[in-house]
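Hey, I'm writing a tutorial for new members on how sequence and structure tokens pair up, and I'd like a real worked example in the thread rather than a made-up one. If someone can provide the structure for the chain below, I'll link this post from the tutorial.
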Amino acid sequence: MTSVAAAIRVLIVDDSAVIRGALGRIIDAEPDMTVATTAPNGRMALDALKHTGVDIVLLDVEMPEMDGITALPRILSGYPNTRVIMASSLTQSGAEVTLQALALGAADYITKPAARSGSGTLAAMQAEIVSKVRAIGRAVQRRDPRAQASGARTTAAASAAGTGYTPPAALLASKQGSASPRVVAIASSTGGPNALADVLSRLPTDFPLPILITQHMPAVFTALLAQRLERDTGRACREAVDGEPVLAHHTYVAPGGYHMIVRTEEAKPYIQLTLAEPENYCRPSADPMFRSIASVYGASTLAVVLTGMGEDGMRGARAIHERGGRILAQDEASSVVWGMPGAVVHAGLASAVLPLSTIADAIQTSCGAHV
């Protein structure tokens, strides 16, 4: 007999009764979700958490008495098994405060509906809200102390399933004779900004190889993400510009709304931004980036797939794998959502499945003499 998963319990925190009601109707319409309770500000949300078990908090930023940025670290420290999704507006100031919240530990963000949003606008936002609450909520429910004790379960399961997993120590040994990487390509989504900052800040400031990143974010967010990564890593990082060369010592972030791919002219690689159709419902998407890098760099490609919802990056990783390149995948225990890296692992494409804290070391080891 198949067991039925418990409903994902959601706390909605917003000073607008209209927004609380709109979000509540979206959540309660799903059979596997329920609104546990609501609160008009951060202080009352903390009070509610003392009495109500919650998997997900949908948290507004600007509220009276206690705003979301003040409440966020208190929620995370007091209730470590609860994840927070920020409600953000797609504005410059909204993006700045959302990235601040992600740096403080928020798992992700949703686009906040305006208080007077019509039914069409709310319907357009519903898929994003539901998919993120479901993916992050299920990840919360799967994690118990035994699952979080170490990454051993992930790697053992990968090996047992014949997924192509090899332990880090065996990574270079299994690749002797293959080309040394000349480029690092990284894909990430839910939980990605913090994972990117963690990996890139652990690399040396003089890390020479170009790094290309596709992170699922809208346009107003990606430039700010690049600025944050440059500040955190001490290396040049920018939102990619169409036609610019791919240079050593530089990191490039795909702009929101564009696929970032690599082309060559006179054997010199350069970046092309395209408005081709979304892939995996995303633009930017990791798959076209990975495919193009595989075609240019071949076996000299090192790809990294970090935390994220869905399967974006898996098909592109296959193209890299077929050309002799290597793919590192973040393990389940350290991922906010093990969708993207999990898809790569289950497809048998990962050279190694690693905790987030060891990925930077694996990049340097894989790159060998180049670093």
